Amino acid sequence: MLTENGDSRYMAAAIALSERGRGRTGANPNVGCIIVKKGIVVGRGWTQPGGRPHAEAMALEQAGAAARGADIYVTMEPCAHESTRGPTCSNLVIDAKPARVLVATLDVDERTRRHGIDRLGEAGIPVSIGLLEQEAHRTMAGFFMRLEKGRPHITLKLAMSLDGCIAMADGTSKWITGDQARRHAHLERARSDAILVGSGTLEADQPGLDVRLSGLEDRSPQPVVLGQSDAPDNWLRVDSPQAVADLKNVNWLLVEGGAGTAASFLNAGMVDRLLLYRAPIVIGGGLPGIADFGLESLEAAHGQWTRIERCDLGEDVLEIYEHAA
Amino acid sequence: MLTENGDSRYMAAAIALSERGRGRTGANPNVGCIIVKKGIVVGRGWTQPGGRPHAEAMALEQAGAAARGADIYVTMEPCAHESTRGPTCSNLVIDAKPARVLVATLDVDERTRRHGIDRLGEAGIPVSIGLLEQEAHRTMAGFFMRLEKGRPHITLKLAMSLDGCIAMADGTSKWITGDQARRHAHLERARSDAILVGSGTLEADQPGLDVRLSGLEDRSPQPVVLGQSDAPDNWLRVDSPQAVADLKNVNWLLVEGGAGTAASFLNAGMVDRLLLYRAPIVIGGGLPGIADFGLESLEAAHGQWTRIERCDLGEDVLEIYEHAA
Question: Residues B141, B233: one domain?
Fold first, then answer.
């Protein structure tokens, strides 16, 4: 089955829907789904908080009888395993009798991988695989990282000056970036299951790590401290970067500092993404964002990071870098 | 006299020509000039090495009789003062009998300011002033800085990692940026009259500050050391940032490090432009590019710098920031 340009646009819309669940779906992938019939969107769904209903179930319910003969765009193949928590999506899709199903990426869960696709095929439904696969994979990277490496996807966030300082020498860091960049950083918190700082940062700054965006207050991630500090009420504590693997239902982890914590995650090879907010200011002799993490040579530093996004946020710049897989 | 879109394009071409003289015209402005008749370019000129011939003289000589009835685009008003070093450009222009003259910016030299324009007007030649004035001013900023503040225009260059380090903790800095960025940095050297490093950098690195670009070897700037080091052969030495005002025939000064030197120029309010090359690498605990320069508060750091350019150079990024006037 060949796909067309219009298919890419609908799949991009499904990926955009999947972003809505990011940081809220527990151990489940944040899938997105859109159902289109004769150019009209008849159903939209995304994995709901906690992981259920699944995206396909939500979209199919919305579409109702209109799903018959429609095209279903879904960012990951429909699940095929039985669960006490809800229906099996591949069954729901088969029952709906769509004209075709377009899947961006296969599952990596061995219980389901290719099984969902195979079931659809056996039921005579044409299936396409791989449309916008990279984009879909990136949007659900937390789930994939969890299954492939047994740990969350980890983002290191830094807000710094042009000369790479995250604070003045005396620790003053309010404010380096402007309002738009700070709001964006809070949005990134809302898209994370958990947020981590080192015990030094916790003791020095007593940071409130909640989401301070109107309407998203209930999306504050689980705060976690790395180190020996007593964890405040409702916080969790880990002894090492590796221990974040044990955090329950955390696909997306945001690391917000300080320099020693950043270094310990880099040293462990556990930073998947850099979120760099840079303000048009020069500090001079301020505090660096990343301490020595044992880099052996400049040569070894190259080839590790690829910029996947850059945008202006007011006077500040956001750059996002992804680590080589 | 109204100008049209085509006029902007020709003036932009004159500005591009003026760039050719940057760093080579001594105390003179690096002017550019283009002469257009019925849509055909009949003359192009730019201030020649050492300052003579002037751009208009060169373009008019090229145009010859074709300058009659043509449009002359020149980045600065033609000179009006007598000099033993060459002809007075406003006289040359009047003699050529052009249809009109378009000038991007007035001179600031009191011997000439408005005099060149006035002479043309008295001779009955229509004159327009101000087309692409900001762009022209930026391209000749060295000359204007020299006349307005009695010192060269000063650019601080840094080549750094994403986390703002210019070297590893042990001083290793080969190579942070890639080949394209390094070539661009050498081009910036070729566009400078002088290049300065601190005595610490001189002693530690013994840098060769020449232009290592094929065909531009003769454009290496005058090397200068700041501090108490003995200046190597052919180098000059200054005791303080302020002393660069005494460097003869230097409109454009490039400061290449180290961190203390950068700080001393910032502290003196003597950095007009930041040239930031950033490689997609993370160093961690490396050397900062700018030492403490006495910044009093983060608030005071804001509103100082505006980005005027950003481009990718291979995997690296170049950002150019301009200081608020």
Answer: no
